[in-house]
Design goal:
The structure is a homodimer. In chain A, helix 14 (356-365) links the parallel strand 12 and strand 13. Chain A has helices spanning 12-33, 38-54, 56-72, 77-83, 87-101, 141-152, 166-182, 199-205, 220-229, 252-264, 283-296, 313-317, 333-343, 356-365, and strands at residues 110-115, 121-128, 131-136, 156-160, 190-192, 213-217, 242-246, 273-279, 300-303, 309-310, 324-330, 348-352, 370-375, 392-394, 402-404, 410-421. The radius of gyration of chain A is 24 Å and the shape is globular. Chain A contains 14 helices and 16 strands. In chain A, the strands form four sheets. Chain A has a seven-stranded parallel β-sheet, sandwiched between helices. By secondary structure, the first copy, chain A, is α/β, with parallel strands linked by helices.
Chain lengths: 425, 425
């Protein structure tokens, strides 16, 4: 590594060194954060909320610059909306920080403990993970949400947002860091990595030993790239190819209500329904009715039946995240479970049925983070589950599965106390 | 992929296809295992124990072949001992299976649950991980231990043992598979991958979507290679550069007893002490005494002090796993924690002290799976902790940290029950 001045363009090695240096500073900050009392952390969250409100004008001005650039480069309106901050949204960001302050502190919780027959006292406590890397796309509110949740759980965070939100994120992180410094807390608890170069992502996810976990939030492409190339442990989030299975015993009024809610409430979210599976036993009545209801609500229905948009393999496998849904007729519960086994992403799978044996079998056999019985897939959400806030929805089986709140941002530590105990040979 | 007959040498692609086919069979088996009652699983474990005993002669004969080959190729005696099975050890293997049968079933445990304000009932249940890959070194008993623990937790297992134990492992797995088949359970719950080619490991750790987790057990080289190249989530295990810190307030009799136990009880295990840190405040008395005690017990002491084997950076960073220890004098608790932060592997760190503030500070600040206060590092062990059995000791922070028992071989699933609930916009 040769020294570079700030006037020079960063070489690849210099970029890696920058990320590693940020991670090293984050580790130092994390050691301090791990020991903070709940009161100190909550004070910091309220101070950060105050600072966000006090700096609203500057934050909105930075956001306007991001928006102008995005508009000039032809960004579609839905993405502009995700990027846009308004006075109301800034209020919401500050309120989110206060909400996290109101939640119980997950750190230090006694998870297990006993006195062993030899008199050793063992206790398992929740401790912070350490340094958390977040990789995410346009919404600037994620910047502050991630800060709030990681700070409350005693972690330092390295943020790698999208370049389209670079000015908004820089303004927000600047405010958060100043708020921490004003309370004599380490500003390096939150750092924004450069979004100019994709290589920042690579260096972050390969900073093993410096970063304890990376959480990618975004599209399937981002998540699979991170998971493939990371050496740091990752938590896969948010790809949801969710199914609604209408069992032979379903109340079709209920099925229609749940299906429409699951598909049309918000089409761009990971818990939206992407495929409806209709039991052959009720297909004659259910298919025309549900196709009509979907069409009436502006949804294009893809499938192998006459009158539908012809389906390819991708229709079954991918998330549409749009006003589209795939529809298949399946020959009973076994076939529904087999279809979900093949195409599901392990996020949320729903059954509509009045038969108890069917709902029990579906719940037991479907392999997913969440199974909905006579309820919309839209309920898979940290706030809906009562966690108060959510850092993402895990679709992997290790560490956390489903909505992740503060507890999922902790690890554990065993403390063993003796009075000179040695272990027999 | 071109078809190959069994007479042809496997091409790299064919080897990958073999591993993937085994994983696909394991997934089918895992779906069935996930639904078994505890009684069925326990019956299978007892049947497997009976079968191991009934086939003891064949197992010992296969092991003799492995031993003869290993001896002929100049394997050192300590490794031969790890490979060797005896009638007593076969009895121990069978007893281990019965022990696992006696443990509570982790699957189906209700971890959390509540009724939400809207009337939705949410429950979080423990469920199997699915397909577990185990990569391990010589000891053939690990083959059966891993089978027992994964079966009890409802998982299928893909075993990749060392080539030196290939015949022993094949004999054991053959016995286990036959025992399952005799009970109409899927034999593919346990499969032995070929140990002839190192590429099997690569294919296993990159079979994302087919394998749910890989647990490497072995030396630091194996574990870091697996962690670096894996796309399947992994649990890092067992590298323990453990420290014993002798605080200024330590009872030196106790310190000596704990240090000797932690270093000399068994030098090849991950919870053995590799460095002793002595507080400068008591160095004058403690250093000569502890060096003498170590030397008297056949331990070579490395360090920067006169009379010790001169230390290099590796002495502080690496596990000896031998009759060696590094010794450093540190300037108080801060310096001890800083040394451990720099060189520790997050396994087990011990303090010997009578001062309560010192033990509290050390416990809170050291970042490790286990902290021992006035107790030997040797206690970090699933059986010692009362788990009944252990699949490994995790040194990572995600999913599991410290000794892993049956519970750590499970994931979770949310079951949400409503009566037509939809989520408001």
């Amino acid at each position: 590594m040769t020294a570079t001045t700030s006037a020079e363009v960063s070489t690849p090695d210099a970029l890696e060194a920058d990320v590693h240096a940020a991670a090293a500073r984050a580790r130092v900050a994390a050691r301090a954060l791990a020991l903070l009392t709940t009161a100190r952390k909550d004070d910091a969250l309220h101070a950060a909320a105050d600072a966000v409100l006090a700096s609203a004008d500057a934050i909105l001005a930075a956001n306007s610059e991001d928006l102008a650039l995005a508009e000039a480069s032809g960004t579609p309106p839905s993405q502009l909306d995700r990027l846009r901050l308004t006075p109301d949204r800034v209020d919401g960001i500050a309120a989110g920080l206060r909400q996290v302050a109101s939640l119980p502190d997950p750190v230090g919780e006694l998870l297990e403990g006993r006195t062993l027959p030899n008199g050793l006292e063992i206790r398992q406590l929740a401790v912070p993970l350490g340094v958390v890397g977040m990789i995410y796309e346009a919404r600037p509110n994620v910047t502050v949400d991630a800060f709030g949740l990681t700070l409350k759980s005693g972690n330092a965070v390295l943020l790698r947002g999208s370049s389209s939100a670079a000015r908004s994120n820089a303004a927000l992180v600047g405010v958060l860091r100043a708020a921490l410094s004003a309370l004599d807390l380490p500003a390096d608890a939150v750092q924004l990595l450069s979004s100019e170069d994709r290589a920042t992502v690579t260096h972050l996810i390969r900073a093993r030993g410096l970063v304890d976990v990376v959480i990618p939030r975004g599209g399937a492409g981002l998540i699979s790239a991170v998971v493939r190339d990371a050496t740091v442990p990752t938590i896969e989030t948010g790809v949801g190819n969710c199914h609604v299975y209408v069992h032979a015993s379903a109340d079709l009024d209920m099925a229609e209500r749940i299906l429409l809610n699951a598909k049309t409430r918000r089409v761009s979210v990971c818990n939206a329904a992407e495929t409806v599976l209709i039991d052959a036993a009720v297909a004659d009545v259910a298919v025309p009715r549900l196709v009509q209801a979907l069409s009436d609500n502006g949804v294009r229905v893809h499938g192998d039946l006459p009158g539908l948009v012809p389906a390819t393999e991708n229709d079954w496998a991918d998330e549409y995240l749009s006003d589209d849904i795939a529809l298949a007729v399946v020959d009973g519960l076994d076939a529904a479970v087999a279809h979900i086994d093949r195409y599901g992403t392990g996020h949320t799978e729903a059954i509509v049925a009045s038969d108890l044996a069917a709902t029990r079998a579906f719940s037991a056999r479907v392999d997913a983070a969440a199974v909905m019985v006579n309820a919309s897939t839209a309920f898979t959400d940290g706030e809906q589950f009562g966690f108060g806030a959510e850092i993402g929805i895990s679709t992997q089986k290790l560490h956390a599965r489903g909505p992740m709140g503060l507890r999922e941002l902790t690890s554990t530590k065993w403390i063993v106390q003796g009075d000179g105990h040695i272990r027999p040979a």
